[in-house]
Amino acid sequence: MNDKIVEELINKYIDIKNRGWICSTRSHNTGIGKTFEDLLGKKEDNLSEPDYKGIEIKTKRQFSNSYTTLITKSPEGNESNQNTRLRLTYGHIEINNNQQTLHASVFANRKTVYFNTYQFKIDVDRQNEKIFLEVYDMDNNLLEKEVYWKFSVLKKKLIQKLKRMALIHGNSKKIDNTEYFEFKKIQVYDFTDFEKFLKAIEKGKIMIDLRIGYYKSGKNIGKTHDHGTGFRIKASDILELFTLIEEKE
């Protein structure tokens, strides 16, 4: 990738940083990312391509160690509509809507207890080149190991989306219930090794966040809605996966 593009992005970042405190263009957790992208002039989309001329942009609030989504991918299986099957088989019922939803953060190095009914875990199977979702009952009996994510599909998405990534750090404050951001640092990383991705999963550094719900209105009301089942990592673990190539405060 042309290093001139990295230099261009850093110069744009410096211009934004020099503006000082900037009013958020969106409320809640995604405000910092949406605000920075608006300042770059990027239109919001759900495309698989990187945000800025081949560079994927991620943002985080300074001193926050929350998880960052790397890529999103629904699970596959021998049958179609695995999301619907998982939701209706293992999801919990929302009292107000009498509908089932399945939201769970799943790791490879430990089981996740879900509503004291099931336990979820992921297994990196190098022989079959798949990452499997394992479901256990509360007595640790394996109930199923059917759905998976293919190595080949994940590798393609990672290279397509995250071959180069910029992490933008910013402070936040509220004035009269309105949030403002002050951008403090940019770090640019390269992704080069899929094996590092697999090892980070095995060590519990990357989790799979199952976010399978349903449409609450519109023509698809009641039908399954994948809100973005994602592979997520903490900013403090970024170097488990990426190589830092540029940094500017």
Oligomer state of the chains in this structure: single chain
Strand content: 35-45%
State the helical fraction. 10-25%
Largest sheet: 6 strands, antiparallel
Task: Describe the structure concisely for a colleague.
The protein is an alpha+beta fold and 249 residues long.
Task: Describe the protein's architecture and organization.
With 249 residues, this protein is α+β, with helices and mostly antiparallel strands. The protein has five helices and 16 strands. Strands 3, 4, 5, 13, 14 and 15 form a six-stranded antiparallel β-sheet that branches. Strands 1, 2, 11, 12 and 16 form a five-stranded mixed β-sheet that branches. The longest helix is centred in the first third of the chain and has 15 residues. The protein is globular. The model has no long low-confidence stretch (mean pLDDT 90).
Detail the topology: elements first, then pairings.
Layout: H1 3-17, E1 22-23, H2 31-40, E2 56-61, E3 67-72, H3 82-90, E4 92-94, E5 99-106, E6 112-114, E7 118-125, E8 130-137, E9 142-144, E10 148-150, H4 151-162, E11 164-175, E12 178-191, H5 194-202, E13 206-214, E14 224-226, E15 230-234, E16 242-248
Parallel strand pairs: 2-11
Antiparallel strand pairs: 1-12, 3-15, 4-5, 5-13, 6-7, 7-8, 8-9, 8-10, 11-12, 12-16, 13-14, 13-15
Key words describing this protein structure:
249 residues, 16 strands
